[in-house]
Write a structure and sequence with these properties.
The chain has 13 helices and no strands. It is an all-alpha fold. It is globular and about 55 Å long. The termini are far apart.
Length: 311
C-alpha cells in the first residue's frame, strides 16, 4: 500500500451548481424495473435514506465552514451543500407517491430520522475515553464535528461509486426501466460524480488523520449495509403486490450478475481503494460523462429552460 497521497486530477474538478429539478411521479410504477421488484426496491431505499442523510450532510458542512482556510475549497463546499439540499428534496418528493401505491414508508423513515438527527446529531460525546476524545467539552465538540466530516467522506466514496454505476447501467435501459425514475437516479448519480472529491478534500483539509479515515470508513460501511438491508426487507415485506416478499444477499448478488444492481465484486474492490493512502476520488469515475448526462437529462434541461437551473 502506497504511503504517497495521489495528486488530484485537476481536469476532473469543475464549478458546482445545484439544479432545481422536479419530477412527475403519476405514471411511475412501484416496480419501476420491470420484472425485478428486488432491484427496484433496493434502489427505492435511496428515497428513505437520502432525505434525512443529505439534510445531515448540509447541517454538518455549515458548521465546518469556519474551519476552511482555502477559498477554492470553500467554493466547492458551498456548491456541494446546494446540490445535496436539492437531492434531499427530490427524493423526499417520491415518498407520497410510494404511499399512494400502498407502501407507507413512514415507519422506516422515522428510524432514519432518529439515526441522523439524534445518534449523529449535535451533541458532546460522553467523555469516557480520554485517549479518543479530548477531555474538555469544547475539544470534544470539535472532535465530534471532525468525526462526522470523516464519516461523510467515507459515505461519499460509496455515493460516487453508485453514481458511476447508474450512469453506466445499460441493463436498466434494456429492461425498459421507468424513464422518470431512471432520470432521477442518473441526475443524482451524475452530480455525485461531479462533486465526488469535495468531501474527501474537506476531510484532508480540516483533519486528514489516516486512523480516523479507517475508523470512520468501518463505521460508515457497517451502517450503510445495516440500514440498506433493513430498508430492502421493509420494502419487500410491505409491498402490497408481493406474496411473502423476502430479501437476501443472494438476491443482491444475482441482480449484480444481471446488471440491474452493482456487482458485489466491484463493491468489494472499492474498499481497498478508499483505504489506500494513495487514494483520491478524482481518479474514480468521469466528470465528462457526468456533465454529458446532465446536459441531456430531461429534468435538468427542464429546470434550465424554466430559468431555475442553478440555485
Amino acid at each position: 500500500m502506497s504511503n504517497t497521497q495521489a495528486r488530484p486530477v485537476e481536469s476532473e474538478r469543475i464549478p458546482l451548481k445545484a439544479r432545481n429539478v422536479s419530477f412527475s411521479w403519476k405514471d411511475t410504477p412501484l416496480h419501476w424495473v420491470p420484472g425485478d421488484p428486488f432491484a427496484a426496491h433496493t434502489m427505492n431505499v435511496l428515497h428513505l435514506l437520502l432525505p434525512a442523510g443529505e439534510r445531515w450532510f448540509v447541517h454538518v458542512y455549515k458548521q465546518v465552514l469556519p474551519f476552511i482556510r482555502d477559498d477554492r475549497l470553500r467554493e466547492d463546499v458551498i456548491g456541494f451543500i446546494g446540490q445535496e439540499a436539492m437531492h434531499s428534496q427530490a427524493h423526499d418528493e417520491v415518498l407520497p407517491h410510494l404511499k399512494e401505491l400502498g407502501l407507507d414508508p413512514t415507519p422506516y423513515t422515522a428510524q432514519i430520522d432518529w439515526f441522523f438527527e439524534k445518534l449523529l446529531g449535535d451533541r458532546t460525546p460522553p467523555l469516557l475515553n480520554a485517549w479518543v476524545v479530548p477531555p474538555s467539552p469544547g475539544r470534544a465538540r470539535t472532535w465530534w464535528l471532525m468525526e462526522r466530516v470523516a464519516l461523510i467522506a467515507a459515505i461519499e466514496h460509496y455515493t460516487a461509486f453508485l453514481g458511476d454505476w447508474i450512469l453506466n447501467a445499460g441493463e436498466l435501459d434494456r429492461r425498459k426501466a421507468d424513464p422518470t425514475m431512471l432520470d432521477l437516479m442518473r441526475w443524482h448519480g451524475a452530480e455525485e460524480v461531479e462533486h465526488r472529491s469535495v468531501a474527501f478534500d474537506l476531510f484532508m483539509h480540516v483533519d486528514g488523520s489516516y486512523r480516523r479515515r479507517v475508523r470512520t470508513w468501518a463505521t460508515a460501511f457497517t451502517a450503510l449495509v445495516f440500514l440498506w438491508q433493513r430498508g430492502v426487507r421493509f420494502f419487500m415485506e410491505n409491498d402490497p403486490t408481493l406474496i411473502d416478499g423476502k430479501a437476501s444477499f443472494k438476491d443482491f448478488y444475482v441482480c449484480g450478475r444481471r446488471g440491474t444492481l452493482p456487482a458485489t465484486g466491484d463493491m468489494l474492490k472499492s474498499i481497498p481503494r478508499y483505504l489506500s493512502r494513495a487514494y483520491h476520488p478524482s481518479h474514480e469515475g468521469s466528470t465528462a460523462q457526468a456533465v454529458a448526462y446532465l446536459a441531456s437529462s430531461p429534468a435538468a434541461l427542464a429546470a434550465e429552460k424554466a430559468g431555475k437551473g442553478a440555485v
